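Note to self: user wants both folds in one dump. Writing first protein now.
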Amino acid sequence: MSIAKNYIYNVTYQIVILIIPLVTVPYVSRVLGSNGVGINAYTNSIIQYFILFGTIGISLYANRAIAYVRDNKEALSRTFWGIVVLKFITTCLAYVVFLVFLALTGAYHNIFLIQSILIISAALDVSWLYMGLEDFKKTVTRNLIVRLIGVTSIFVFVKSASDLWKYVLILALSELFGQLTLWAYLPKTVNRIRLKWIDVRKHFMPAVYLFVPQIAVQIYVVLNKTMLGSLSNTNEVGFFDNSDKIVKMVLAVATALGVVMLPRVSNTFARGDMDKVKDYLYRSFDFVTFLSVPMAFGLAGIASTLTPWFFGPGFEKTGTLIAVISPIIVLIAWSGVIGQQYLMPIGNTRAYTISVSLGATVNFVLNLLLIRNYQSLGTALATLVAEASVTAVQLGYVAYSVKLKKLFASLWKYFVAGGLMYVIVRYLTSVLSIGLKMTVVEIVVGAFVYFSLLFLLKSEMNKRFFSTGWDLAKKIRNR
């Protein structure tokens, strides 16, 4: 399957993952309030630690491992089952530790128990198999149906603040059933093998090597909410969680390419074609910059008028947080390309680990310094600085093997177009009324300004983007 099709499928997949909490946010924010939203975010952040230690870097390793052996079905089958058994063992151990934690904790006992379904779901996740095979269609189509059922269930069953447990249960079951549906394809994808042929130890240490960077990444993804809940209050967690959801959905469009390209680049590197690996890097970096710059500028521009109608009364602070953290869309898009599409596929785990570990350290220290005085705004600032440090370190590592001038050749065009777009969008937000229709107008005008300016600046990526879109439209029309 082509990179373009896989990219489209993975963008859809990433948005589907976010669609339940995001599409329902306006409704849930009004029904559960900032406290209910905060409790869900806080307890979920704790559960993510058990998932992290239960999966010990397996999913990231598995994607790459499958890409290396995908041309040999026997080797593919042995690799798959070895990873599945290893993941089952480690996740079961994590669940036992969770039960001990549950016995010792007093707050939110029932919510934690419901959230623990996510640990079971993580044990059953085999999406890495299809990603390694570059077959993203299966992960999208099956999950989409399950997730849409989940969205419908939220509107049907969650009616008041006392229905928080129902909301959490629907989210958890949607995740679980979404993973179970992927198992239906296994008989046609991998062979059954004898138990004695399953080599768990072979996969343990490589997965552990990738566990360290995943711990670091998880620290500044999840620890933000944990520290906010501990050092501030659940209302502040709710404000930050909603801003995080909006940014993550926009970010999914830019970072989806990294997941698509990792198996492709890994397979190319395994064949020894280093020139092609670097070519993928240059093209991917230019593409994600082309997309992420207008997303960051645009989201910052509409943040203040988006939040009042989208989240409802009481969430005004979320708009400020969105504007503050929107630059991470560009930073994470860059580090996603460098880390997942270059450092990881070529086996330079050390550089990747150092970069994300530094980011985690920066995030943790700044959270300690800023949360007590600035609450969720402090966390937003800490996140921004942490992501900037990750990207800077990764650029430093690749500076000796790739041409940075070539990476950033068109950057000035994107920032000029994005900056002017931001100015115009901010002007529109000051003169237009607040509401869905006006937000759509702001987005459409902003997009028109950005792409028009790139046309005047003779951007090659802009031409390729619309040329590819036009060709795709003709193919669909001619079917």
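First done. Writing the second protein, which came from a different request thread.
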Amino acid sequence: MIYFAALVVLATLVAMASGRVPAVLALAAAICVAGVTGLAPVPTLLAGLSNGGIITVAAMLVIAKGIVHTGAVSRVTWALLSTVTSAQNAVRRLALPISVGSGLMNTTPIVAMLVPAAKELEQNRGINAREVLLPVAHITTLAGSVTLIGTSSNLLIAGIAAPAGVDMTMLSFAPVALPVAIVGAVIVYLTAPLMLSGQGETVAATRDWRVEIPVSGKALAIGRVAADFGIDQTQQYALDAIRRWDADLDPSAPIEAGDTLVFSATEGGVTALWGSPLFGLVEQRLYRVSAGSGASGTVRDFETDGGIHVIAARTTGPLRDAEVRPGATAFVTTPTKALLVDQPDVAIFEKAAGLSPQPAKTAFALAILVAVIVSASFGLVPVELASLTGAVLMVVTGILTPKSAVRALDWNVLFILVGSVALGAIVVESGLATVLANAVRHLAGGSVLLVVIVFALTTAIVTNLVTNAAAASILTPVAIGIASELGINPVTLLALIGTCISFTFINPFSHQSNLMVMQPGGYTSASFARFGILLVAGSLVTVVIVSYLLLHLQMRF
């Protein structure tokens, strides 16, 4: 049975690492096989549906959505970046605030908010977004592992460890993760200018925005050609085609009412076109919006029947066919920003003139977040109950609509977590965890230092090949077993695993934050590997030293 369990787990990991099979499908298949063959009891395989860690992840996604909706995070970011003069200056100013934020909420909305901010710096001040986005994304990933609620993998580790009698509190990960985060941030700050210098794929002079401007019946341009008004070719935009019905006409054709003018433009060109009086578009407001962590489909998903209309996005094809991903930006028009507040796919938005939203319930949202953190940190209530109450309050106080709260849930992530708990159950129930723990013990020869090195290296490798949830679900029970055999503190060993799971710096597909900054920063897989290897190496050395010293001191006292 142990060999069969090992085969099921290995096949699942290979399928996930291949990228050809969705992680959810691979995990679901493992659950079915394990249930049918009796590798683990069905209630145990499905225990993830009631796992406290996963409940907390879901609740914190809603709370993070509420915080982002108030504009609190975006206002702080734009204020911090308002006077920066270089990429290093931007990273230095952002490092501490985003580290604190990453420890208190999911990192995805933070990175989603930083993408348009970095592109704004690039467009307006020539500060290369390439030298800002990846360093900031890596810092948020490292900082998120410091607290229990900072990452879903930490919550998953705590949820798996709880039935075994190991209690992971709000700051259980901090003694290991905090020194690593500090060292990692220093490495990022010092190496980014050398490793990420040069232009990315999208720079200020690049017309990488597709703009579709509708021509109203009151437009001044009707009956004239674009060249008459000098809008056929400028430094900021160029007219590519005139769409009439379903046909694309030559840019030199006379403009008629009902046409759609298709431009390629810089970001500044988008606002310049919308502000032109030639098209009769005088009663609309223009907003820059960023897609939330649960957004999918096309940029047209931003649109509603209430008046939101997408006019620009970074794509080469029609807007209606452009794929939307978390962190993607678009320009939309709407008569009132209230429509954007209620649009579930919008994470943040700001007026194209530069003003950010200032909803009146910012204080309520921040108070809810603080209450959740304080109550969970001091053990007043379990963290899953505190976070769930906070999520409910986000809706009850009107910060989020019920629909927005539901849309804040990233079902793909949640189901991966549920499946990962099942994968961990297979490892435990089949006896595979005991076998692996014995193997580690024999390999280490009873040496605590070698145990630390083995877990650090294994975690870093697995998390870059498959999901961090899978790494957590497999290694957590093994770590608890080896800690029991060697008489070392399981909390420190689990903190080591939680910290190393954040070392997703080499493979751009191993963490959502990597994917969110990849296109806007013009990064390639090679640039991720080149920048990430040194960071992983430095972080591994730090985590091994810190973990060993902590375990050594704990055994002495």
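Dump finished. Worth passing along: The radius of gyration is 25 Å.
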